[in-house]
Design goal:
- The chain has two domains: 97 residues, Alpha-Beta Plaits (2-Layer Sandwich); 194 residues, Rossmann fold.
- Helices cover 29% and strands 33% of the residues.
- Strands 10-9-8-11-12-14-13 form a seven-stranded mixed β-sheet, sandwiched between helices. It has a four-stranded antiparallel β-sheet with strand order 2-3-1-4, covered by helices on one side.
- α4 runs parallel beside α5 and α7 runs parallel beside α8.
- The protein is globular and about 60 Å long.
- The relative contact order is 0.11.
């Protein structure tokens, strides 16, 4: 598709912010992402900036279609922020963004991204771009589900995964999001995957990404499920790129889910949160075999401590 770079295309950009306080960053990112989703943003990004007082704030820059009147849009957003769920969030800036077509930004926002030693994450529209030789392509369509490969926590999980996948392994991906982790495992040689997510709306995105990667639907069982509740089998590898509290809630069931010499990969937590997670992990019959840090994010690969 061709774009006229001189066309007067614009949208409204609204920046929301929330102060970063202690261990709240992960939940605040989720909070801001929810705002972007429920207000109909056509594109968004989250970033951190220093405020005037030397502290830090988490920002959501959300773009809205220019067909919406700006007065009506701001009124709707102000009304939303009156909810107790969003009481810490404020609108910091609102302005018009011109001559930067969203389609072009969307195209450029997800270039091929090398991950680990042998992987490269790609949006499907970059399929003809040059990539480093010898890397396995993982196609993910950037959408609403969590796990594009561009977030530090996802990259941690992928790197921890690529070291241990063996031909024929059975993999369980809890909170699968886009499906990027189990798709990676299958493309690295795993033989079967189970993928679970509490949100049924993610499964259509998972199916789309499976098709992009030529994954045979017969080798993956997709399920709407809450963590490990109702899962009866055993697997060689469990992956969970989710938040701290769901990871903690799942820990009592992880050991029974792993085959002998199996691995559990946990991500989606900050370095500060890792101390809480490690203490509970050690009491659940598991021990860390490898851990990784990427920016503020932390993840680990664990094995059974005994039995």
């Amino acid at each position: 598709m061709q774009y006229d770079k001189d066309a007067k295309i614009f949208w409204w950009t609204v920046e929301f912010s929330v102060p970063i306080e202690g261990q709240s960053r992960t939940s605040d990112e989720e909070l801001l992402s929810t705002i972007a989703e429920i207000t109909g943003a056509i594109g968004s990004e989250i970033f951190v900036e220093k405020d005037y007082y030397g502290g830090y704030r988490l920002f959501l820059k959300a773009n809205y279609d220019s067909s919406r009147g700006i007065d009506d849009l701001v009124y709707e957003l102000d009304f939303l922020l009156q909810s107790p769920d969003f009481e810490r969030v404020e609108i910091s800036r609102c302005y018009k963004t011109e001559n930067q077509p969203w389609e072009i930004q969307h195209y450029d926002a997800f270039p091929p991204l090398p991950v680990g030693r042998s992987l490269v994450v790609m949006a499907p529209w970059h399929d003809k771009d040059e990539i480093p030789e010898g890397r396995q392509k993982i196609y993910i369509y950037p959408a609403t589900a969590f796990g594009t490969g561009y977030h530090e926590s996802t990259r941690i999980a992928m790197e921890l995964l690529e070291d241990v996948v063996k031909d024929g392994d059975v993999v369980l991906d809890v909170g699968t999001g886009t499906g990027i982790l189990f798709i990676t495992a299958l493309k690295l040689g795993a033989g079967k995957a189970f993928a679970r997510d509490i949100d049924p709306s993610t499964l259509d995105e998972v199916k789309r990404n499976m098709k992009l990667n030529d994954i045979n639907p017969n080798v993956c069982e997709l399920t709407v499920g809450d963590l490990l509740k109702g899962f009866k089998g055993q697997v060689n590898i469990l992956t969970a790129n989710i938040l701290l509290n769901p990871n903690l809630a799942m820990l009592p069931d992880v050991k029974r889910t792993l085959k002998p010499k199996g691995f559990a990969i946990f991500s989606g937590m900050t370095q500060i949160e890792s101390y809480t997670f490690i203490s509970v992990l050690n009491s659940s019959g598991m021990m860390i075999e490898k851990e990784m840090r990427f920016g503020d994010w932390w993840g680990c690969r664990a094995i059974k401590a005994w039995g």
